[in-house]
Amino acid sequence: MMRSLWSAASGMIAQQLNVDTIANNLANVNTAGFKKVRADFQDLLYQTMRAPGSAAAEGVVMPTGIQVGLGTRLAATSPLFTPGMMQQTGNPLDLCIEGDGFFQIKLKDETAYTRAGIFKLDDQGNITTVEGDPLEPPLAIPAEAKRIDISGDGMVSVTMADGSQQQLGPIQLARFSNPAGLEAMGRSLFRATDASGEAQVGNPGENGVGRILSGTLELSNVQVVEEMVNMITAQRAYEANSRSIRIADDMLAAANNMRQ
Fold this sequence. Notes:
Strand 13 (145-150) and strand 14 form a beta hairpin. The longest helix is centred in the C-terminal third of the chain and has 33 residues, at 224-256. The protein is built from 2 helices and 21 strands. By secondary structure, it is α+β, with helices and mostly antiparallel strands.
């Protein structure tokens, strides 16, 4: 009887974490470059009362066994790097990656990676994120520049006041053998880990990192209808586990109230 109580309790805890994950996906439905996260579960240990293949008698083997499961747990939260919708903005510093690459962002003591291509210019003309973190490698736009052009291969060009053009260099991208192994840092940034592997850096159009679209943003890949269906499924699973606890409690109460 106690097994059912603890198994159902583990199911309620698991579904609560599932709802937390879904709620975060919905909260970021309008976050540029956000990648939805899926909660993955696995069953717990089994109590084996009779192992499959046990000998029932001399020369007789039981074809099946008796095992009782002890519940479930959250095994992983996996980001899904499917592409989001693209939205044209006309702003040359709004960048979108067609492919598997990530923009490289220089933080104080490490390099972070992002799919969010919302970039600005700081007071020195450096291309930065909305929070002021510069691109890696750094690129600075001259104050005299009247127009910025970024090609598909990442080359940043500017048109000066006198009509002359200058090429400032390419925006480099990074890709990973296992992007699901990246560690989310918040602010739409990811950190490389042993699970993701080292960053493979290259110019857009090379090494499978993808190409860059200027004047376009990649939106979140969250599908609201899909997340709402997942929310309803998680809620019903939570209710079913709650009902299992009530039934187990009723059975325990009936056993305690039995008279000799």
